[in-house]
Amino acid sequence: MNENTFQFSWYALDGDAFVPQPHAQSLWSSEQMHGVAVSALLAWALEREVEAIGRGGLVPARYHVDLFRPAKMVPTTARGTVVREGPRLVLVDAVVEQAGRPVARASATFLEPSTNPPGEVWSAEGDRPEPPSLELVPADLPHHVPFFESDEPWSDNFGEHQNAGRHATWHIAVPVLLDQPPTPFQAVASIADATSMVTNWGSGGVEYINVDIDLALSRRPDGISVGLRASDHVASDGVAVGTAEVFDRRGSIGTATVTSLANARRTVDLSGGVTLEGSA
Questions:
Q1: Is-contact 215 247, C-beta < 8 A?
Q2: I need a labelling partner for 70 at 20 to 30 A (CA). Which of 33, 103, 112, 227 fits?
Q3: CA pair distance 245, 22, nearest whole angstrom
Q4: Residue 37: helix, strand or coil by DSSP?
Q5: What is the pLDDT of residues 60-84, one digit of tens each?
Q6: pLDDT for 141-164, tens place per residue?
Q7: What is d(CA 125, CA 132) in angstroms, rounded to the nearest whole number?
């Protein structure tokens, strides 16, 4: 995909500050950024540190984000730190700050790829998610409203998917900055926040808000188009855990998990649909 096909980004750069753009606005509040934009910036900071030490060929096998303060629609900074570098592993931390205090943090483990051992191991090969058809979502399409599947077939009509069915979604990533097309890791790291959508969205809307993101990958996605399909959702006393399978057009690549708190007083009701400007 040519960078000229991107018409917007999560941020604009002003010196060392990342200024949130309108599409970074959360559905929960017009004053807050959504987790997709925050996670994209954390992934940008992590990946920059790995590339700076010449280890860009490693697989971002584990990625964890804590979203512990609401990220506002204000200038933001991000920085990363290499915690340990070994022959087969690099561990990196990153933090996003606003007004001099942290609002989110991440850690990632990058692993050296090799070859699979010869032994056989059980896997759920008979039940893998399928992306929407290329006729519905062409591979070279620039960013668009996410597509969903539930009790209804794939479509970008959010209102059709407010039901209690098993949800899946398909996204094409947005760049962190307009002049820097997203990398596959930035794509999957940002889209992983949508695990909350596919696992917490039900007949009453999205009634839980996630406080973290956990992503485990066996490989990088092929490009910047990534899907998530709900694997499970369990909830007790207002605390929920949702797990999703992560996939691209070549197949499944890992899992994503979010821990969430009940937020019924500020439910995101999508029954009326969502425009591109308001999409997460």
A1: no
A2: 227
A3: 29
A4: helix
A5: 999 999 999 999 999 999 999 999 9
A6: 766 789 999 999 999 999 999 999
A7: 19
Q: What is the mean pLDDT of the chain?
A: 92
First-to-final CA distance of the chain: 21
Q: Answer whether 231's CB lies under 8 Å from 255's CB.
A: yes
Q: 69-72: which pairs have CB atoms within 8 A and are 24 or more residues apart?
A: 69/101, 69/102, 69/103, 69/104, 70/29, 70/31, 70/32, 70/103, 71/32, 71/33, 71/37, 71/38, 71/96, 71/98, 71/103, 71/104, 72/31, 72/32, 72/33, 72/98, 72/103
Which amino acid would we find at residue 205?
Answer: G
Residue 199 and residue 235 in contact, taking contact as beta carbons nearer than 8 Å: no
More reliable by pLDDT, 187 or 145:
187
Contact 143, 174 (CB under 8 A): yes
Q: Report how far residue 137's alpha carbon sits from residue 108's, in angstroms, rounded to the nearest whole number.
A: 31
In this predicted structure, the answer to whether residue 3 has a pLDDT above a threshold of 50 is no
Q: In CATH, which of 3.40.50.150, 3.30.950.10, 1.10.3210.10, 2.40.160.210 is domain 3-113+140-274?
A: 2.40.160.210
Q: CA-to-CA distance for 71 and 48, rounded, in angstroms?
A: 22
Alpha helices in the chain (DSSP H): 35-52, 184-191, 195-200
Give the tokens for residue 148.
Answer: 């969903």
pLDDT at 277 over 50: no
Phi, psi angles (nearest 5°) of residue 27: -75, -20
- Examine the pLDDT at 173 and tell me if it is beyond 70: yes
CA distance 93 to 45: 9
Tokens of 11: 């941020």
Q: Give pLDDT tens digits for 86-118.
A: 999 999 999 999 999 999 999 999 999 999 999
